[in-house]
Write a structure and sequence with these properties.
Blueprint lengths: L21 H11 L9 H15 L9 H14 L17 H12 L6 H21 L9 H28 L5 H9 L2 H23 L1 E4 L5 E5 H17 L1 H15 L3 H5 L4 H21 L5 E5 L5 H5 L5 E5 L3
Antiparallel strand pairs: 1-2, 3-4
Helix pairs in contact: 2-3, 4-5, 4-12, 5-6, 6-8, 8-9, 8-10, 10-12
């Protein structure tokens, strides 16, 4: 029986969907963040790992389909770290990012925040992000823990200072009516989180700008280390991290300001928080795969735009580099 077109011939360690198109990357990341993998049992995980081992050693039992192999790889990649082979703690998996991150987003967007609540939610958000980054880090080249702590502290300080500073400015703005002031305050989390994300990228990856990152030719061979490619990689990552919180922290305040004027929520104010939670969940679920699909994981650049020694070291007109998370 013919297999569905959605399941091409299985390739171990390769994405199931084409990575050269935005749609292909979008479908790939939908697979990665699929929260259903959070409910995979230990026995099912062992089965998936064993099936991939059998494929690797050419000892697959008869009748195993491409669909089963892709499903097994999806389970393993969602739960087990590729470098350490250790199980990633559930709240810090990419598949757990939306379910465990949504309550934090709801907290960030609560109206009438006090100074203490603003500081708490910004700290909690950056702490969750730091744990996700660390749990999904590239562990092939051991990086000192101090670098993660430096990035974490920089992100927390920038997020808290910008959020508190903007809230104070809005409260002191006498030109605004109380309703306008409340509406503006709802948008404060976005610039705070976006700036913290950029700060985190720069602090944790600034050495790449000095040392460069590996660029590879068409055959996957390392051509050399390029600082120019590192600059492109950091810009792409920073842009992704600015785009990511935009729909999550901008759309819900706009939608809620409209919904709160409806007779349904006016007569039932207790429903505001559950409705806001659903709006945040929908925005988060849409924004995450869209943002991380903007650029390919392996980005391409013309050798002519890189350092002369890189261009001279290969006959390829283009090389690729790992953008990073």
């Amino acid at each position: 029986m013919a297999e569905p077109a959605d399941y091409p011939p299985f390739q171990l360690g390769k994405p199931r969907f084409e990575q050269t198109s935005f749609y292909g990357r979008f479908r790939h990341f939908l697979d990665i963040i699929d929260p259903r993998t959070l409910f995979v049992t230990e026995s099912r995980l062992k089965e998936a790992v064993q099936l991939l081992e059998d494929y690797k050693h050419g000892t697959l039992p008869p009748g195993v389909t491409n669909k089963e192999l892709w499903a097994a790889q999806k389970i393993k990649q969602a739960i087990i770290h590729p470098d350490t082979n250790e199980t990633i703690f559930m709240p810090f998996r990419m598949s757990g990012y939306i379910p465990f991150g949504t309550p934090i987003v709801v907290g960030l967007l609560l109206p009438n925040q006090t100074l203490a609540s603003t500081v708490f939610w910004q700290w909690l958000n950056q702490s969750h992000n730091a744990c996700v980054n660390y749990a999904n880090r590239n562990a092939t080249k051991p990086s000192p823990t101090s670098k993660f702590i430096q990035g974490y502290l920089g992100a927390v300080i920038s997020a808290v200072s910008i959020a508190v500073g903007l809230n104070v400015l809005v409260q002191r703005a006498n030109k605004f009516t109380p309703a306008t002031r409340l509406l503006i305050q709802r948008f404060v989390p976005f610039p705070a989180v976006a700036s913290a994300n950029i700060c985190n990228v720069v602090l944790m990856r600034h050495t790449e700008l000095e040392e460069g990152i590996d660029v590879l030719d068409n055959n996957g061979n390392i051509v050399g280390s390029s600082r120019i490619a590192a600059k492109h990689a950091l810009l792409e990552t920073a842009l992704t991290r600015v785009v990511l919180p935009m729909p999550i922290l901008v759309l819900p305040p706009i939608i809620m300001s409209i919904l709160e004027k409806t007779s349904l929520l006016r007569s039932r104010p207790r429903m505001i928080l559950p409705v806001q939670s659903l709006v945040c969940l929908a925005a988060f679920g849409l924004a995450l795969p869209l943002a991380i699909s903007l650029f390919p994981q392996m980005s391409e650049i013309e050798t002519a735009r890189l350092e002369p020694e890189i261009a001279m070291a290969t006959a390829s007109k283009t090389v690729v580099y790992n953008k990073g998370l």
